[in-house]
Amino acid sequence: MHSLMVIRSRLAHSEQNRLLASEAASAEKLLIQSGYQVTAATSLEEAKRKLADADASILVIPISDYSDWRKELLSSKSVPALWWCSEITSDLSAAACEDDFTADGILSSSMLPAEIHWALHFSARQFFAEQQWKKEREQLLSRLEERKWIDMAKGILSRTRNISESEAYEYLRKEAMNERKRLVDVATSIVKAYQLLHKP
Questions:
Q1: I need a surface site. Which of 25, 38, 104, 200 has the fewest CB within 10 A?
Q2: Is 119 within the bounds of a domain?
Q3: CA 185, chain centre distance (Å)
């Protein structure tokens, strides 16, 4: 992880904007001193445009905005988004202290370069492990859904043709091969046709 993007939001209050800008500049300086290439963005739109070259994003924003910003950034590129915890960002976040909040990681100005490195390293590992877990979960849910359609089709074929479920499965398999379709597509067609014909 070499390239980081520091992002800060613009708030309605000008003094808060000045403080966030100052904090973002401090974050950029510390990250550059720690050996990272740093790009800055002052809005979500700008960040989404520049995110292509970043390995992670550092959000210098009130914690109450973190989840929404992270979601928007993930829609552009799948990289960890770490929250920059400082006196300023935590003061702006006091009201959100009790909210259900999960960050990909947290950095602060009191960290040494080695601590920043390891925080980024472990945040990235955890982030990508979570992304892999979500992908595997989606694949598993998809397979379960496919299995449901196949089982329903086997049941329909067993009842209507008076055959065993293993014979029904073999029938589905042969039909899929003959039609050059996936087994689940043939099963879905059978179930939907059956439901249409037996609609009350």
A1: 200
A2: no
A3: 29
